[in-house]
Automatic annotation (TrEMBL):
Full protein name: EMARD protein
Coiled coil: none
Domain DUF4209 intervals: 131-211
Signal peptide: none
Family annotation (InterPro entries): DUF4209, ERMARD
Length: 663
């Protein structure tokens, strides 16, 4: 990692030339009045005249366009610097309303008045993400599914209809194309250091955004369309993000660590310091926006060094962060980075959780694509990103910071890191589903029962042996499964109430299961298990709702004779439904615990096993239908459950279940 001291730029020579030199080759002064009318409107025709096209195929000539637009950008930058804040607001604020982020664009003007290159880079990152989100809203005026990638969005016919193709080509020179300045990507992926981003490009994007607002207003007036802004993503279950402790003292240590750690490129040090400052100032979105690209560039340096592919350090690749965390390289060799990051794969699991897993916060994607309200960005999320970054600073550092590593706060952080396990992998989400479903079942004993004065009415049901038969079958299945359960959970005189408990599920769910690089078959199995769990939870909620509704109707004497009988059948069915659902949850968890072992065994009739799981899924889906308040088919539920339990028992007998194959 000593290489980090010798790296002066993360831009390849061609990209460095395009961003840092090309737009400065023409030194002639450009008159701002050529592109700005007296009434403050952007003269788009004059701007688009600076975009060049190749004679061969009339595609964009990015090099010549950047060279020609360079003086224009400088003229815009000087124009903005000549304005007071009040003048800027009066002249331009109205034209930023379409972005739904007016204040952010007004703040970008403040940034241009100073020479702090870090703030310019931060302003550009925020500006490009919010501009992309706003352009996506415009796209949806005509189109249906907004493109995920900015380059596809800018190249869309829908935006060309609203703004004109020539205008969209101007934008593509600045953002969205790897052949242009590509300002968004070089910043969001950690390629550009603060001093490598000219402020005039930030000024020009600010100017162009106002011009887009003017064009959009004309289009909306002509078409009588209304621009609707998509709602921001809101983070739920923030308590699941609470992994690392972080306080003011930790931040003070971090400020010293960034100056010494070999994980930090010296050219990028201002970004790290600005990120920590932003956190202390409660600017949590700014902190994370600054920090995420630096984590990526540090990891990219580690990846290219450990895998001996230095040529990839300066190149931008699609989904490169995912590739850095993958099990194998493109040439099928084993990726060495996860091992370098440490066991038990804590760094890789954390990064997958926070950045990649579909059910996780996917913080970088959502920030960089403008999906999050920056003003409401949660401290909890920023807290974890900063703390995780500090663990990397410690891990990849020289021995001369031994004193920092031995600090009690840092030791606490490192201990949390070593114990980290995935929260948002499908396996982890299944565990959570199962436990939540069991909590719902535990509410059943509190459901309102038939009042004592109506006991005689129910006596005709007491002789019904159906529930007893089903419960006996459940007990037999439990006996077969006991050998696969934890030893401290399989001793009880009452198999159902003594074994099918929340304690057993908690014990099983606490079993450490490797989530990194789960095989395809494992993930396919988990998909089916999650569907089963979801259906079980739906049944639980429906039973609770039906019991509460019918009890009230019973007491109000609003039930007809048939409805009263059906209600009593439901109460009888609950006697066996509770242990049935608990049995299925235990089965799900046992399958999960052994799933990796089974998928590695050969020969293995995977399709037959999957067919069994899908039959259980079919049973739970039918159960959802029969127990709904609309259907209330409790007699059919008994018959359905009987068939399902017979099948489960037969499969268990034949040893085709997953845990039996795994042992």
């Amino acid at each position: 990692m000593a290489l980090s001291d010798s790296i002066t730029t993360c831009l390849s020579p061609p990209v460095h030339y395009v961003i840092c030199n090309l737009g400065f080759e023409k030194t002639d002064a450009y008159n701002i009045n050529n592109i700005l009318s007296e009434n403050g409107e952007v003269c788009w025709q004059a701007v688009t005249e600076h975009v060049s096209y190749l004679k061969s195929d009339q595609s964009l000539d990015y090099i010549e366009s950047i060279r020609s637009l360079g003086p224009v950008c400088e003229s815009v930058n000087l124009h903005f610097k000549s304005l007071t804040k009040e003048q800027f607001v009066v002249q331009y604020a109205l034209w930023f309303h379409w972005t739904n982020c007016t204040e952010l664009f007004l703040e970008a003007f403040d940034v241009l008045q100073y020479t702090q290159t870090t703030e310019v880079a931060l302003g550009l990152m925020k500006l490009t993400s919010c501009l992309e989100r706003a352009l996506g809203d415009v796209y949806l005026l005509i189109g249906k599914d907004c493109p995920f990638l900015l380059r596809d969005l800018l190249a869309s016919e829908q935006l060309a209809v609203v703004f004109g193709q020539a205008v969209m080509n101007v934008l593509r020179v600045f953002i969205g194309s790897p052949y242009g300045l590509n300002l968004r990507n070089v910043l969001w992926h950690g390629f550009a250091s603060p001093q490598e981003i000219p402020a005039k490009y930030c000024a020009m994007l600010l100017f162009l955004t106002a011009g887009l607002g003017q064009l959009l207003q004309t289009y909306l007036l002509q078409t009588k369309c209304i621009l609707v802004h998509r709602p921001y993503v809101i983070f739920f279950s923030l308590e699941e993000l609470d992994v690392f402790p972080l306080n003011h003292e930790t931040l003070s240590i971090a400020e010293e660590l960034v100056k010494l750690s070999s994980f930090v490129l010296k050219a990028m040090l201002p970004f790290w310091m600005a990120a920590l400052t932003a956190f202390k100032q409660s600017r949590y979105a700014d902190c994370v926006i600054l920090l995420l690209p630096q984590l990526e560039v540090g990891l990219r340096l580690l990846f290219t060094n450990t895998n001996k592919c230095p040529n990839r350090f300066l190149t931008a690749e699609v989904q490169f962060l995912s590739k850095m965390l993958a099990k194998h390289l493109d040439n099928d060799e084993v990726n060495q980075l996860p091992a370098v990051l440490g066991e038990p794969a804590m760094a890789s699991e954390f990064l997958w959780d926070f950045l990649n897993h579909q059910e996780g916060p996917r913080i970088r994607d959502r920030l960089s694509h403008g999906e999050i309200n920056l003003e409401a960005f949660p401290r909890a999320a920023a807290n974890q990103i900063v703390a995780f970054a500090i663990t990397l600073l410690c891990r990849f550092s020289d021995e001369d910071i031994f004193a920092f590593k031995e600090h009690v706060i840092i030791k606490q952080l490192m201990n949390c890191a070593s114990c980290y396990h995935s929260r948002f992998h499908p396996i982890s989400r299944l565990k959570k589903q199962v436990l939540e479903c069991m909590k719902s079942i535990h509410l059943w004993p509190e459901l309102p029962a038939v009042p004592a004065e109506h006991v005689q009415t129910t006596k005709r049901l007491e002789g019904n042996s159906e529930a007893s038969t089903l419960i006996l079958m459940i007990s037999e299945i439990i006996s077969q499964l006991q050998q696969y359960m934890p030893k401290n959970c399989n001793l009880s005189d009452d198999p159902i109430n003594g074994i099918l408990t929340e304690r057993l599920l908690n014990t099983l769910c606490d079993t450490r299961i490797c989530t990194l690089y789960s095989p395809r078959r494992v993930l396919e199995t988990v998909v089916v298990l999650r569907k089963i769990s979801t259906q079980c939870h739906q049944v639980c909620e429906q039973v609770i709702a039906s019991a509460e509704l019918r009890s009230k109707q019973w007491m109000d004497k609003t039930l007809r004779s048939r409805q009263r009988h059906n209600y009593l059948r439901m109460l009888n069915s609950i006697k066996f439904l509770s242990p049935v659902l608990r049995l299925i949850l235990v089965l799900i968890t046992l399958e999960l615990v052994h799933v990796h072992l089974v998928c590695e065994k050969n020969p293995f009739d995977y399709q037959q096993y999957l067919k069994f799981l899908k039959s259980v899924l079919q049973y739970t889906e039918n159960l959802v239908t029969y127990t709904s308040t609309e259907k209330n088919k409790w007699d059919e539920t008994v018959e359905l459950t009987n068939k399902a339990l017979i099948k489960i028992r037969e499969i268990s007998d034949k040893k085709l279940m997953l845990m039996q194959l795994a042992t």
